[in-house]
């Protein structure tokens, strides 16, 4: 009599979205007979479904191609619940993530039992649309289903759902206190359908990383995306913005990128082919980057050192590493320069900045007074958010503050950079871009000129000889951008009050619809008996109670020995209730 759910390991994908470790994921199988349904023109479309499923299995880099094939098949049959589910899942992986919602809702509408994680996925889709209240409801419904029906294979989703609920609450506060500034994608063809990130301004040129590529180019075995390469965008006489790849001596099949200036001649580069990923010094010679010696005082044999940044003084370096002994998987560390050729051992920056979640993409301002970094912890509104910490008088760093909306979003926001004029750049996976991560920058507003009204003074009329009158010059008043402010979270109203849920008492269930006489033999009370057909079972319930306590009291008094309490939400039967639902 329990609901039998189809289980998909898509749950592991979202463990990846939370922790960065991809374990595996599966689509729901689309049955040919149900998809074709005696429509000959759907046979070719089903071949696209099969091809899409095969591409999907190759890795995340192939998901956009898989999605396009699924959408093509969808044009000939948009009612198949498994196809709708798979399209929604692909959108959640490859983006735009806010496009997933309609397909997941359609899948659930066509088959309420489509998957054990359907409410979790719908919660994610609502979250990416900034609909935090509905997202919280579905995350809590997902938790309730796991706890009431004891789905052991889905227990991993309980803490993940709690994390998403907290992010929704943070998002609601951050959007309520949004900053008075505008951001925009960088000009020209810097952004593409692939990932662009890690912007740097060097000699008035924009350097950035991209995972763009052609069909036959090599792909990284980790995620099957094209290898990361360095590009430079500069002004051109022919084009407004000319984008060219910056070659280096590491070859093609490697993820490598420019991270920071090290001194007057050298730069810090990342090289994925060294250990688990290490930092190197590089110089540019005859138009090509020469990656030289490893930064031995930072790199460790079995750990990955990725992001790095130095202030203009060059007397300290901040970097990110997943070495053992940190607060989370990836932490921020620093080294101080002790002499011209000697640096201190790496020091963890501490628990005020590092969390049990990932920190990454560190950047220190040129004057060394501000530290920016990405984090999945603190009061993030989703995935990685960008945070700022100020250096205090004693040299320590202040408690970080979220840079707020619209810099941060419910998607991943990373690789913050600020030039010497205070103009900032960063990368984001948010919807509305060209695809994947796009690079955004601060939109510099036009100066707001306020006319200064001239005071009118009534003077006595005096006959004077005609003279030339000079009018005072009106000075422009320019408005500047406001600073991000720390937001202190206030108690959030209960998003999901118990009145949203209804407890009923189930008195009977049968494969065939029961005769009213048989029902009245089992139940002799006066309550209206509600008939529900679920999973080929006819189920009969009575009452409607706001609390579990009221429902159990009525169950014990209704006269049906094997009656039990079930929980409903919006007419949808969640399952047997064995304890009160926790709304907070």
> Which band does the percent of strand residues land in?
15-25%
Largest sheet: 5 strands, antiparallel
Point out poorly predicted stretches. 1-24, 451-499
Please give the radius of gyration in angstroms.
Answer: 30 Å
Provide the CATH topology of the largest domain. Tachylectin-2, Chain A
- CATH structural class of the largest domain: Mainly Beta
In which range does the helix fraction lie? Answer: 10-25%
InterPro entries: TPR-like_helical_dom_sf, TPR_rpt, WD40
Pfam families: PD40 (PF07676)
Q: Can you offer a commentary on this structure?
A:
The chain has 584 residues and is of the alpha+beta class. The protein folds into 3 domains: 10-176, Tetratricopeptide repeat domain (Serine Threonine Protein Phosphatase 5, Tetratricopeptide repeat), CATH 1.25.40.10; 185-442, Glycosyl hydrolase domain, family 43 (Tachylectin-2, Chain A); 498-576, Alpha-Beta Plaits (2-Layer Sandwich), CATH 3.30.70.1070. It is 23% helix and 25% strand. The chain has helices at residues 10-19, 32-36, 42-56, 63-74, 81-94, 101-110, 118-128, 132-149, 157-176, 516-522, 548-557, and strands at 183-185, 196-202, 205-210, 229-234, 242-246, 256-261, 267-271, 278-285, 288-294, 305-309, 316-321, 331-336, 347-348, 359-364, 370-375, 385-390, 401-402, 413-418, 424-428, 438-442, 501-510, 529-534, 537-545, 564-569, 572-576. The strands form 6 sheets. A 5-stranded antiparallel sheet has the order 22-23-21-24-25.
